[in-house]
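pinned: reference chain
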Amino acid sequence: MNALQLANPIAAYFAADRHGPDMLARCFTAQATVKDEGHTHVGLDAIQAWKAAATTKYTYTTEPFAVEQKNGYHIVSSHVAGNFPGSPVDLRYHFRLEGGLIASLEIGV
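pinned: its structure tokens
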């Protein structure tokens, strides 16, 4: 990962993404939501299951390269490459933070 200045919960998310679904789920509030690939996952168990399914199905790397703040969101652009259709792709991660954790995340192009 490059030297972007990411908020602590967001930096923790990208670091945890390489270490599995249990660690990644710890980055979120108890009632957090994740929207990815047309599905919404609510709560820690659902977020953990979402990440477990993604890591079972695909092998990939993420490399954040830009960040901006807009309308209460931290928007991180990241280069994602792996064994999934359309790879590589640059995705935008829209994070909303609350109490030092991620309250919502929406991933898209």
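why pinned: The mean pLDDT is 93. The first strand starts at residue 28 and ends at 36.
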